[in-house]
Known about the structure:
mainly alpha
Amino acid sequence: MKRIIACIISAIFLGILISCPQTCAEGISRGLYNSAKILVPSLFPFMVLSSFVIRSGAYEYAGKIFSPLARILKLPKSAVSAVVLSFIGGFPVGAKCVKLLYENGNISEKQAERMMKFCICSGPSFLITAIGAIMLNNTKAGLILYISQIISGMVLGIVSGIFSDKESETIFSERKPEKTDIMQAFIMSSSDGAGAIVELTALVAIFSMFINVLVSFGADNYFLTSIIEVTAACRDIVEKGCPLWALSFAVGYGGICVHLQIFSLLKGIKINKSVFELYRLVNAILSSLITYFICQFFGDSLQTFAISGNANAELTSTSIVGAVSLIIMSGIFLLSLNGKFFGK
């Protein structure tokens, strides 16, 4: 059955490429352009940072600092760095950290699967800068979206911890993996980040092509983008003047394109995709409710909005969060030069 479905998809794909070459080319170009302007500047530094934190052993130091968070989420201390980075780095960063922790033997497969129920959050560069400051001309709105995502993620993390299987989740929690040399860790992290970005860019380009083709045949652009691709969805929501909670719902779900990015990064780890999708939907509903509740304290100005900014705005390579991430990486690098940082 899988092979039959694959053949059908391949035939449809080929038919689209032959019948709509110009439309396909425009969609691919738009996807690559958006990736160059948004995906690479905002995510690549965090991809490198997340890999470096795990490969260098810096996560052990972070685990000591954020140990209360580990107790709240019922996770080993080594997993805390992945949770923190997932909340500040953007959608796929948490998946990248979880995969590396699993490969290092710091967390079990059950723990990795549970972490992916809540270690997924759009980063501040997208929510506060791109949506809040640029699209809406309202940084406060972007901050509300970001806070809503963090609160929703923490709630889901606590709930999933309550119902977790403690015995199967503590198998590898005390295991001490070998640490990589500091310079080698940095080189390997740069390679990890580049490989991940290439995969993500390819998915964004392909989904952009399919959206462009479907829209050319008269499909509802707003409906498609809300389900498929989060960046385009946010632009459509802003253009239509929908409530802020609608943006929070779209970002909370993330879109199928983001989900496939995460599945790609988690190759080798068994993930129940149905449960994953359910948690994404619950996260979308919960974050939108939190956003609606917060907006009640700011009057009607944030209940609904019109296009006061630029709905087609993109982040540039001068992303503030990207710069901050480089500073953080430099700090971790300097700390790691101290032998005590590695417990030597």
